[in-house]
């Protein structure tokens, strides 16, 4: 991942909005609709390999979308993203 890439993370972007009561409580299917809109604008699917990622229903659906649309799927390990994960955690603390 280069510093020039624009990255969208459904969990990271929606968590703060939920905590600030800016989003309604949505069902999983409603979240998938929201996610798919952004996914369709992406050219690559990066998967952060944190505990639980392999059995995540959402990630597995996104993987199927990537395969169906011939998008690259790139694993992204926590070691590769230590600085990004630290920044993400700091942002989450702001909304907690």
Helix and strand pattern: HHEHEH
Please list the strands of the largest sheet in the order they lie side by side.
1-2
Low-confidence regions: none
- Give the helix tally: 4
Secondary structure: helix percent: 40-55%
Query: What do the pLDDT scores average to?
Result: 79
Termini distance?
Answer: 28 Å
- In total, how many domains does the architecture comprise? 1
Radius of gyration: 14 Å
Largest sheet: 2 strands, parallel
Strand content: 5-15%
**Overall geometric form:** globular
Global structural class: mainly alpha
Strand tally is: 2
Question: How would you summarize this macromolecular structure in one to three sentences?
Answer:
The chain has 96 residues and is mainly α.
Describe the fold and architecture.
The protein has one domain. It has 96 residues and is mostly helical. It is 49% helix and 10% strand. The model has no long low-confidence stretch (mean pLDDT 79). It starts with 9 loop residues before the first helix and ends with a helix. Helix 3 links the parallel strand 1 and strand 2. Strands 1-2 form a two-stranded parallel ribbon. The protein has four helices and two strands, in the order ααβαβα.
Name some characteristics of this structure.
96 residues, two-stranded parallel ribbon, 49% helix, 4 helices, 2 strands, mainly alpha, globular
Helix-strand blueprint:
Elements lengths: L9 H10 L8 H12 L4 E5 L8 H12 L3 E5 L5 H13 L2
Parallel strand pairs: 1-2
């Amino acid at each position: 991942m280069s510093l020039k890439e624009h990255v969208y993370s459904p969990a990271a972007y929606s968590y703060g909005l939920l905590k600030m009561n800016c989003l309604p409580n949505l069902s999983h299917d409603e979240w998938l609709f929201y996610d798919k809109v952004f996914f369709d604008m992406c050219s690559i699917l990066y998967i952060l390999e944190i505990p639980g990622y392999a059995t995540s229903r959402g990630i597995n659906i996104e993987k199927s979308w990537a395969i169906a649309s011939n998008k690259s799927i790139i694993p992204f390990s926590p070691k590769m993203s230590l600085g990004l994960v630290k920044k993400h955690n700091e942002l989450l603390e702001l909304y907690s």
